[in-house]
């Protein structure tokens, strides 16, 4: 007999939940066990529209009913950010492991309350930053951690943008202050900030300074913004995130002897094949007409998409905790909290007229 899969409950029928529902179905150690929405009819319609959800799924007309189901092991929470604190804390108190969409919270204080509830109840917390689980990410990490090929990090630049249509800018939850008040900063800037922290092995910067030119909608939600980060040893980073520019999602990080560049770090251009570029000790030909050596392209193939790998790892941790062989993995709250702190400081800098603000953990 096969092992019993981790049984997921999903709170809400957000569009991103379709992607994660598929990821759960593709993983080998998890299953969509229950769907909860604000009405049974809405949940039923969602299930009918998604063939990868098993027909045996339980359908509930409230989020509370999912959390009260004793057979549900873990919950995936794709609700608007303003609802994360309420439902993630309650899920933890009901002893459900929590896979929570990003941004995790509206600020670090809320983040801390969510993680404290998870820790107090012995459940695993993980945020839904999918690219962290792609095998390409581990290979890129090997390169930038190599003192011979990369050296010490000196600069990091990250961009995540897409052009939202008028309907999105008017009605999407990410443009509404009562639902996702962080707007593009929370939705896209989260990835940029995480990429920067990832590149420096999660060392927090000394200061964060928002870059002038933030664009707000009429309700005061950020549609486009950027920031610069500075470390005590002189490392620098910048990022830009926007709902108003063509789709771009890149990281360029430069060390004393090497450079890494990736064009599609958030969502790979192809689901099962991706690449990145590296160069080491780059120079020029005698007449400065060519690069020597040329950058190297590294192609990575993967059987499962990154979101399925995320689910698989989360379910592995949950299974270990249930069996008593593992404790909750603490690195995910640490990575998430540092990301949240950077976003907090960007907001503070904007509110203070684009002054530099210190980052205090």
UniProtKB/TrEMBL annotation:
Q: Which residues form the Gfo/Idh/MocA-like oxidoreductase N-terminal domain?
A: 6-126
Q: Which organism does this sequence originate in? A: Stephania cephalantha
Xref: SUPFAM superfamilies = Glyceraldehyde-3-phosphate dehydrogenase-like, C-terminal domain, NAD(P)-binding Rossmann-fold domains
Q: What is this protein called?
A: Gfo/Idh/MocA-like oxidoreductase N-terminal domain-containing protein
PANTHER family for this protein = GFO_IDH_MOCA-LIKE OXIDOREDUCTASE N-TERMINAL DOMAIN-CONTAINING PROTEIN, PTHR46368
UniProt xrefs under InterPro entries: Gfo/Idh/MocA-like_OxRdtase_N, GFO_IDH_MocA-like_dom, NAD(P)-bd_dom_sf
Assigned protein family: Belongs to the Gfo/Idh/MocA family.
Q: Which domain of life is it from?
A: Eukaryota
Residue stretches making up the GFO/IDH/MocA-like oxidoreductase domain:
149-260
State any single GO MF term.
Answer: nucleotide binding
């Amino acid at each position: 007999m096969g092992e019993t899969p981790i049984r997921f409950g999903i709170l809400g029928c957000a569009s991103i939940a379709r992607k994660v529902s598929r990821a759960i179905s593709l993983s080998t150690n998890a299953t969509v066990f229950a769907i909860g929405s604000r009405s049974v009819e809405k949940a039923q319609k969602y299930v009918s529209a998604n063939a990868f959800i098993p027909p045996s799924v339980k359908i509930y007309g409230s989020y509370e009913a999912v959390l009260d189901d004793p057979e549900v092991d873990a919950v995936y929470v794709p609700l608007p950010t303003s609802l994360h604190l309420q439902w993630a804390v309650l899920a933890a108190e009901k002893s459900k492991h929590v896979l929570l969409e990003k941004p995790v919270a509206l600020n670090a204080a809320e983040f801390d309350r969510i993680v404290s509830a998870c820790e107090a109840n012995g459940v695993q917390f993980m945020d839904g930053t999918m690219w962290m689980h792609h095998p390409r990410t581990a290979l890129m990490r090997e390169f930038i951690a190599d003192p011979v090929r990369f050296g010490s990090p000196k600069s990091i630049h990250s961009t995540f943008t897409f052009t939202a249509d008028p309907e999105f800018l008017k009605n999407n939850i990410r443009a509404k202050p009562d639902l996702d008040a962080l707007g593009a900063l929370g939705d896209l800037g989260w990835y940029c900030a995480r990429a920067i922290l990832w590149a420096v092995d999660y060392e927090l910067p000394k200061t964060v300074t928002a870059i002038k030119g933030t664009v707000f909608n009429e309700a005061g939600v950020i549609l486009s913004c950027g920031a610069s980060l500075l470390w005590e040893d002189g490392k620098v980073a910048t990022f830009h995130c926007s709902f108003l520019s063509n789709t771009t999602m890149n990281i360029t990080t430069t060390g004393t002897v090497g450079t890494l560049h990736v064009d599609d770090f958030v969502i790979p251009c192809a689901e099962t094949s991706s690449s990145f570029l590296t160069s080491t000790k780059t120079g020029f030909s005698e007449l400065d007409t060519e690069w020597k050596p040329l950058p190297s392209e590294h192609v990575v193939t993967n059987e499962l998409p990154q979101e399925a790998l995320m689910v698989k790892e989360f379910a592995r941790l949950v299974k270990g905790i249930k069996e008593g062989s593992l404790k909750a993995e603490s690195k995910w709250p640490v990575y998430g909290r540092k990301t949240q702190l950077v976003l907090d400081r960007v907001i503070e800098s904007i509110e203070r007229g684009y002054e530099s603000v210190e980052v205090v953990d």
